[in-house]
Amino acid sequence: MPEEKVKKDKEETPESAGTFSQEKKPARRSRRPQEERKYESRVLEINRVTRVTSGGRRMRFQAVVAIGDRKGKVGLGLAKGNSVRQAIEKATRVAEKSVMIVPLQDGLIPYSVEGKSGASRVMLKFKPKGSGLVAGSSARFLCELVGISDVSARVLSRSRNKLNIARATIDAFQKLS
Question: How many angstroms separate the CA atoms of 6 and 88, rounded?
């Protein structure tokens, strides 16, 4: 009889089904692996978006995020989320997928170029080394994230929409490559 009891303890009984003993406990894994971010990010704009339904108003947030490594790589992301934090995280993921390489020569662009998106037009003008970064709005942030140290960026249009200015700057970067 005692031998049967020992055998029964080792077998799984209905009460112990699904539970782990100390020796059978699986190793705990972290939910998200903590890896170093290889890109620096900058939030360009956060908008509150309202959708009116029969039950009332639904609030969401839209984030525009630019990322770059200051060595010639830059990306732009736009996403919506239920909270500001969620929108920024989603926009950062979108930006990481849209990373492009900008050809730089010692922190300078090789020649002057113009980009356009929607009603916005941005001109990136070649400047000699030591003249500094002269730019405004989203164009300045993108030039910093790319790693351009000497350039003159001018928003030629009357549009002050930060997203379109950022897209026009990205268009100008694409024309460089």
Answer: 57
pLDDT exceeds 80 at position 29: no
In 3D space, the residue among 112, 105, 118, 108 whose CA is nearest the CA of residue 154 turns out to be: 112
Give the global pTM. Answer: 0.77
| Structural domain range at position 118 | 40-176
Q: Averaged over 28-52, what is the pLDDT?
A: 82
- What does the CA dihedral 118, 175, 162, 98 come to, rounded to 10 degrees? 100
Distances (CA, A) of 162 to 120, 128, 149: 9, 27, 21
Confirm whether 168 is domain-assigned.
yes
Distances in whole angstroms, Cα of residue 165 to Cα of each of 74, 91, 123, 142: 15, 17, 10, 10
CATH of residue 44's domain is 3.30.230.10
Residue 53 lies in a domain: yes
Evaluate if residue 174 carries a pLDDT over 60. Answer: yes
Domain count, the chain: 1
131 domain-assigned: yes
Q: What is the rounded distance in angstroms from the CA atom of residue 67 to the CA atom of residue 142?
A: 8
**Model confidence over 111-166: pLDDT tens digits?**
999 999 999 999 999 999 999 999 988 999 999 999 999 999 999 999 899 999 99
Give the H or E element holding residue 85: helix 84-97
